[in-house]
Amino acid sequence: MPTLERHDDVFFLDLGGGENRLHPDWLTEVDAALDEVEKAEGPRALVTAATGKIYSNGLDLDWLFAHPEEHPDYVARVQDLLARMLSLPVFTVAAVQGHAFAAGAMLSLAHDVRVMRADRGFWCLPEADINIPFTPGMSALIQARLAPQVAHVAMTTGRRYGGTDAAAAGIVDQAVPEDDVRPTAVEIAAAQAAKAAHPTLGTIKSRLYAPVLDLLRERG
Amino acid sequence: MPTLERHDDVFFLDLGGGENRLHPDWLTEVDAALDEVEKAEGPRALVTAATGKIYSNGLDLDWLFAHPEEHPDYVARVQDLLARMLSLPVFTVAAVQGHAFAAGAMLSLAHDVRVMRADRGFWCLPEADINIPFTPGMSALIQARLAPQVAHVAMTTGRRYGGTDAAAAGIVDQAVPEDDVRPTAVEIAAAQAAKAAHPTLGTIKSRLYAPVLDLLRERG
Amino acid sequence: MPTLERHDDVFFLDLGGGENRLHPDWLTEVDAALDEVEKAEGPRALVTAATGKIYSNGLDLDWLFAHPEEHPDYVARVQDLLARMLSLPVFTVAAVQGHAFAAGAMLSLAHDVRVMRADRGFWCLPEADINIPFTPGMSALIQARLAPQVAHVAMTTGRRYGGTDAAAAGIVDQAVPEDDVRPTAVEIAAAQAAKAAHPTLGTIKSRLYAPVLDLLRERG
Lengths: 220, 220, 220
Prior knowledge:
The structure is a homotrimer of 220-residue chains. With 220 residues, chain A is α/β, with parallel strands linked by helices. Chain A has helices at 24-39, 61-66, 71-86, 103-109, 127-130, 136-145, 148-157, 163-168, 181-191, 200-208, 210-217, and strands at residues 3-7, 10-14, 45-49, 54-56, 91-96, 99-101, 113-117, 123-124, 160-161, 174-176. Chain A has a single domain, classed as 2-enoyl-CoA Hydratase, Chain A, domain 1, CATH 3.90.226.10. The mean pLDDT of chain A is 97. Chains in contact: A-B, A-C, B-C. At the A-C interface, α10 of A face α5, α6 and α7 of C.
């Protein structure tokens, strides 16, 4: 389960030590953590990461197949999380220490900056292979954060990007050795913490992604 | 005239051995070929290429000047082809073995991936020089597929990109020696053929380019 | 105050030798210069530059704080200038010989091409630090001209890009030694001067940025 700690101006959200799929309970915990980050005052920033080989494997498909009647509500909750992270009024850095797949990869894209482990782990959108099309909101999120052909290839081929490839494609901002992932993310976040003292950062992000946020919050 | 062949999972559409301008009869033949590709079932992908020095020189201006009253219908047909290729539910690769100019260059952009000959041939949008503005749909297509300043420079200056320049600018995905253009395109296409067995790929592309497709299909 | 000269086919607009902030009188002078450029006929292009260490530092905040009741009208005038430059029917090159900050940086983005001094001067959007959110129109302008993550980082962190960094990020097209800034800009502009002899170039730009122009011209 996700846990939140604070060191100086940087909140650190550990997404968990397993697959860190977006189970409804996991979403509730992450939302509560983001409430705490938002509610705090003064300079602050957020780093998310996980322990082990996986950052997040995305939707909890086992739970979803067991609760098909909850499909629309569940997707709405996932989209709400993506929208919230994308417009969070504090600076956010994803420390991608392991695999980021599907909605886990999208969650990383909703952060301001991504630092990824260089030598192991993949960032991947396997939707075209597993026969789950992106919702319009998810599609818009990915397009808004990546160069056109990078988004196209990632979304239509399911290509797996290692850290170095992901950095070359601009999917992540930096690929670094394993031991540097978290410290680099914290350093970047700490340098931007002062911006959360006033609401401008949140306004800037909300205007940057207004059409994406509208689509993510649209209810069918 | 365009001809369609199939080798294993890869359809190969030869656009012709001349200028391969988008004459109404040429459009009819290409549409029939795409019908056959769509109608087929199971794993399949599409490679387009031409023989000779030209991939396609774009609109058939001679025909158009001789049939000015058909201008709106003709442009609508060209835009329909671009929209169809952009959202085709099979993976598409343009093997650009020679010049791709104007609507011929746009047709290449409507494919999922482009492989271009490195040492000869230009990819070029000469519209600003020949005094033919891009339609809103064509403008949106180009912008959706290229980095912002690449689209801007290509569209406002009519710069001619050789294969190596086009690859550096992200206009094409790879620039390779002449003899490798077709095999490389076929290899890329074959690797994605399995995706056409279910409708997800078409849905992904249609959502990626929903606003572009709307503009291309808009009638005046 | 801004001054306009013409050498052969290239108009040269000197934005001034100070901070070149967008004071209302400065806006009036620049508008008059652009009237002259538009009114002229035949081949022509425009280079803007300044003298000294600053290209433009953006909004005239001193004047604005002294005239708070004019805030909406003032912002509307600035947005009109950005929209006008973005869609000017002649080719435009910004010769960024010194600092381009905030609305001064945005003004440079409204040109077709940017040439920047390599070794001194910064291109910077400090809005997140000085607590002035981008208007929706300004936000759209920046996003339409830069790669997604470049726009995001520039807008959310206030990062200062020197010429070489700005060129690497695609914010400017070239970074060159100080003495080459103006000659390079003039050479690029002169090569495109012939395009201004017919209205196609203006139509191309207006269609490329139709949604941005709508937002910039929107009145609250």
